[in-house]
Structure formats: structure tokens, C-alpha cells
Amino acid sequence: MSHLLVVEDDPQLRGALVRALRDRGHAVATASTGMAGLDAAVTHRPDLVVLDLGLPDVDGGSVLRMLRSVSDVPVIVATARDEETDIVAALGDGADDYIVKPFGSGELDARIKAVLRRLGAGAAEEPEAPVRVGGLSVAPSAREVTLDGEPLELTPREFDLLCYLARREGQVVSRRELLAEVWQQPLGGADKTVDVHLSWLRRKLGETAQRPRYLHTVRTVGVKLAAPEEKPEGGGDAGDGEGGRA
Asked: What are the angstrom distances between the C-alpha of 147 and each of 35, 97, 136, 160, 209?
């Protein structure tokens, strides 16, 4: 049984979420304001937080940033805000997933399980050998990445994305596959989520969509991770989410 904290100011929606999530086997606590939610998250240490952004006292984005400064608890932002800037900001502030209202309780439950499964996967497995691609080294078990011998600081989702691509060095991977395998969304989701994370990875790898080193976009097909000396296939790099779509 997972222990959830729902931070939502709408009493009707909050009650509906509690009933639906409890029916699906979760233990659920709630908070109706941002500061109450922050206090509950720090004090009671839930397995996951479902966080609204439009809270009456403190904006949910501020709550997320404050929470991230003291806790690595998984957070799914559940909000009516559907602008790309809001999605990018929440993911940048440390959200593990983002879902736009209105949504079904089944979808929220699936996303909760996917986040918890992803973060808990491999805990009892044998250590996996690091994957090396050129000067890039990805250690799946230790969740560490180095580039030319220097450590890279990645968010959990950035690491999962890079690790998935590194294990498939030289293979073109579609965005649909990345959404299904990295984001655990087999029914699809927002391509812009993949694009945003690819853009952040490029920046940390010291490259751009126009001048790639490791992350190569193959137009209309997908993206692949390859050593810098390799050339991209399928017409070259014509941009990813920063200037176009694969």
C-alpha cells in the first residue's frame, strides 16, 4: 500500500480524489493549502505527493521548490494549467510528472504507480556495469554520470532518459517509445515532455540541437545517443523539441 498526500484546495475534487485513490488501494492524506501540504510532506513523509498549483495561500510552484530543498519525495503536479511554460517550470522545479485537469482517476493511479515503480526499480538487483559511449559513462546502479571524467548533475528523470538511450547506443528511439518506457505512459502523452528533457540533457552535455555531440535527432523517426565521432543517420540533425520534432 502506498501512502499519498493530496494537496488540493477544491473540497469536491479533493474528496473525489481521496475516494477514488482509496478504492484503488492507496492510503491518502490531504491538505487544502500550500503551507499545510509542505508541513505534511516533511512531517509524515508520504510515498508520493499529488500537488495542485492553484492554491489559496502559496502558489504550488513555490511549494514544489520549497519541498525540493528539503525532500526528494516524488511529486505529480495535477493542475488545470496546460501552458507549456507552466509544464516546463514544474518539471524544472523537480516535478516527476505533470497531469492536466480534468483527468480520470484511472490515469492518475497509473501515473502514481509508474512513478513509484520507476523510482523503486532495481533496488535488489545485482549492480549493472556502467555504459560507456565515447567520453560519457552512465552507471545505472549508482545512478551516476560522468562526461570526460567530470560528474554530471542530472535530475532523476534526466538520468532515466539518458540511461535508456545509452543502453541502446546507436539505435534510433522514437518519442512514443520513450514516453512508454521512461515515462511509463504506454497510451501516449505529450511529446513536449520528451523534447524539454532532451533540451536539458543537451545543455548539460555541452551541445545544442544544431551542433549535437551525443544526442542526434533523426527527422520524423526519433533520437539516438552516439559517440561524437559518429554521424547521425536519416538526413542529419534538424532539431528536436528546441526547434522541430522528430
From this structure: 39, 27, 5, 16, 18
Mapped onto helix, strand or coil, the DSSP state of residue 95 is: coil
CA atoms within 13 A on the CB side of 138: 20
Cross-strand partners of 216: 224
- Grid coordinates of 142: 549508482
Is the four-CA dihedral 178, 184, 188, 194 of positive or negative sign? negative
Dump pLDDT digits (tens) for 33-77. 999 999 999 988 899 999 999 999 999 999 999 999 989 899 999
pLDDT one-digit tens code per residue, 145-201? 999 999 999 988 899 999 999 999 999 999 888 887 887 765 555 568 888 999 999
CB 17 within 8 A of CB 6: yes
Q: Closest Cα to residue 4, out of 33, 29, 37, 31?
A: 29
Residue 6: how many CB atoms within 10 A of its CB? Answer: 27
- Cβ–Cβ < 8 Å for 69, 84: no
Is the sign of the CA dihedral 32, 36, 40, 41 positive or negative? positive
What is the reported pLDDT for 190? Answer: 55
